[in-house]
Design a protein that fits this description.
single chain; 81 residues; alpha+beta; 5-stranded antiparallel beta sheet; 5 strands
């Protein structure tokens, strides 16, 4: 599943950030912001028009991402406690 497909308020774990080309600056920036393998993530809210932007929380930090940016983040389910 990709981050833009995650239902709101559902926690998941970042698996990887996908590069769309060899010099994908957006994917590089997402990794710099903390979207790295093993980090918990969830969608907190979505904008009113076209559900964009997505308000995404990773760790204790929140970011507003467009759907095409969130689509670069591949997720795996959070392990049951």
């Amino acid at each position: 599943m990709k981050l833009n497909e995650l239902p709101p308020r559902t926690r998941a774990i970042v698996d990887e950030v996908l590069d769309q080309d060899p010099h994908d600056n957006i994917a590089r920036r997402l990794r710099e912001l903390g979207f790295v393998a093993g980090e918990p993530v969830e969608i907190v809210a979505a904008g009113p028009f076209g559900a964009e932007p997505l308000l995404v929380q990773i760790g204790y930090t929140r970011f507003a991402l467009r759907h095409n940016e969130a689509a670069r983040v591949r997720l795996r389910e959070e392990a049951a406690a």
